[in-house]
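Input:
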Amino acid sequence: MQGMPESLLGLVENFSKLPGVGKKTAERLAIYILQSSNDDVTSLSDALLNVKQNIEVDSISHCFKENDLCINDTPDRDSNILCVVQHATDVFLMEKSGYKGHYHVLDGLISPLDGILPEDLNIANLLDVIKKYKELVVALDPTPQGDTTSLYLIDLFKNYDLEITRLARGVPIGSSLDYIDELTLAYSFEDRVKVK
Amino acid sequence: MQGMPESLLGLVENFSKLPGVGKKTAERLAIYILQSSNDDVTSLSDALLNVKQNIEVDSISHCFKENDLCINDTPDRDSNILCVVQHATDVFLMEKSGYKGHYHVLDGLISPLDGILPEDLNIANLLDVIKKYKELVVALDPTPQGDTTSLYLIDLFKNYDLEITRLARGVPIGSSLDYIDELTLAYSFEDRVKVK
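Output:
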């Protein structure tokens, strides 16, 4: 934008790269920063760098870890149950549900058409740790790739003394039955739960 | 959010302070940063600090300046016309309109009820520079405080050889006449323009 000092234009450009931030919002944010205290701006700048400097990926579970501690090392978690997810960021979502077991991140889904085979995923490490657990929860996307990967894991562990579960499929809370697609409805019949 | 590394929580907190950024958006932005390249994050972090370090306020016009150059020092601007605005950030708005003269920032509006008097504003510097200009455009908010300040300036310069104008008031472009308030409509009658 004309009339803006160069540094401000630079910040607008950087803000515009963030998801969901358009040109107008980026300008508004940049002007807000210009008017913020030095302390607030330094704090945001440091917070950005800290995230990249302090957060690593655990070599086994591929969960994020900080100070050499990943979420599976936290006390008070159920160490009998392991939840397999696609991305390390899926862990934050799962935590919101109240799940309190361990996690294992695959870093992808099997997708032969895209050239992603089981050996490209973090499955070798899963084989190393699986014996410690009594239950494996497969929490992958309800897509062809997610289903393929789930089936692969079920087959892989079929001879293990291990309970394997997957997330329930059905009607999302708060939705109206009128707007549910047939496949979801079919799954919610298949997974129906006895209530009496 | 549970399960998030501490540095990520810190970034979420910092993002939440930005205007229009709620908890959910802050989380989404923080996760985006976590997945961005080191270069992109360093670039954003530097851009934030640059804004605070490089941008100063001109001692006379109170416009923002960088590298010791404020917008009034830019060549190819009309040095006969001076636009008075409330905030230094208003300059960015005015620039979008295509205005190409100089600017003077008051840093506020006269508001006796809030204890803001003419001597609290950047008016002494205006008196120093006004003789260089042929026209003064008063571009203040159409509010009681804005109007008071405009009238004060008009009175202050009544004996100067200076044309004084204010921004036209009327129907905003793209709006429907059905939804315009009576006062705006009254102004658009008063400021009506001869077309034939």
